[in-house]
Each structure stands twice: as C-alpha cells, then as structure tokens.
Amino acid sequence: MVWLIVGVLLIAAEVLSGDFVLLMLGAAALAAAGSAALSAPIWVDVLVFAATSLGLITLARPVLKRRLQSGDLALTNIDRLLGGSAVVVATVDAHRGQVKLNGEIWSARSFDDTQVLEPGRAVTVMDISGATAIVLGES
Predict the structure, then answer these.
(1) Cα Rg for the chain, rounded, in angstroms?
(2) Where does a domain end: 73, 98, 115?
(3) How many independent structural domains does the chain possess?
(4) For position 77, what pLDDT does the model report?
(5) Beta bridge partners of 135
(6) Ramachandran area for residue 20 (φ above 0: left; ψ -120 to 50: alpha; else beta)
(7) pLDDT digits (tens, 9 = 90+) for 49-65
(8) Which of 55, 69, 76, 111 sits most deeply, having the most CB atoms within 10 A of its CB?
(9) Distance between first and last Cα of the chain
(10) Could you tell me the pTM of the whole model?
(11) Which phi and psi angles does 20 have, rounded to 5°?
C-alpha cells in the first residue's frame, strides 16, 4: 500500500514540476506496488522500483521530452507564408495592390515604398500585416 501511495503522490507532484522525473518515479513506484501486491519480498519491490525508475528516466523521459518540445516549433499559418512566392494580379505600390498567394487573392503593398510592381510579376512575401501581404519584387 505504501508503494501505491508514494506512486500516486509522485505523479500528482509532477503536475507542479513538469520535468517528467517525478512522473517516471511515480510510475516506478506503481510497478513496485504491483510487485508488492503479488506478495514479493521487499528486496524484490525495491529492485523493481530501482530498475523501472532507471529505465524510465534514461529511456522514456528523453523521448517524451523531445516529442513534447517538437510542438514548440510548429509554424503558424502566417509563418508558412513568409518567404513564399506570389504573383501580382493588380498593380502593387506602397499603398495598395493585389497578389495571388497560395491560390488566393490577397491585398498587398510594396515592401520598398519606391517600387511599383506590375501584374504578372513574381514577388516574395516579406511580411503579413493584418490581411495585407507586404511583398518585394523578385530579381
């Protein structure tokens, strides 16, 4: 019963730390509780706890952390558009214009205030401001 209580407390404490160490130790304590429930001697319970915690901390924890941290690098829809190509459909200058970007018509204005981009010209999306693409003519 002690292993079960320790396991549940460690897993509950993990909510506060978020580092997955307490979660791994809690799972190991639950494994030891399972061993104790099978009437194993205390030294077997301790061995099960030690082996399980060592295995989980060295093998499962790094994989779990990598998997959860890879979500931090997900691009937003706007991030995916930056650096992309578009085609001018209505003359683009420093104040107004339109481009076709990813199959959709977007309001656009020129990145360079002196640049006037004519229809049919390929441009690069430098920024998105609201619903307006800020574009630069490709060389």
Answers:
(1) 29
(2) 73
(3) 2
(4) 73
(5) 110, 125
(6) left
(7) 999 999 998 998 888 88
(8) 111
(9) 73
(10) 0.47
(11) 75, 0
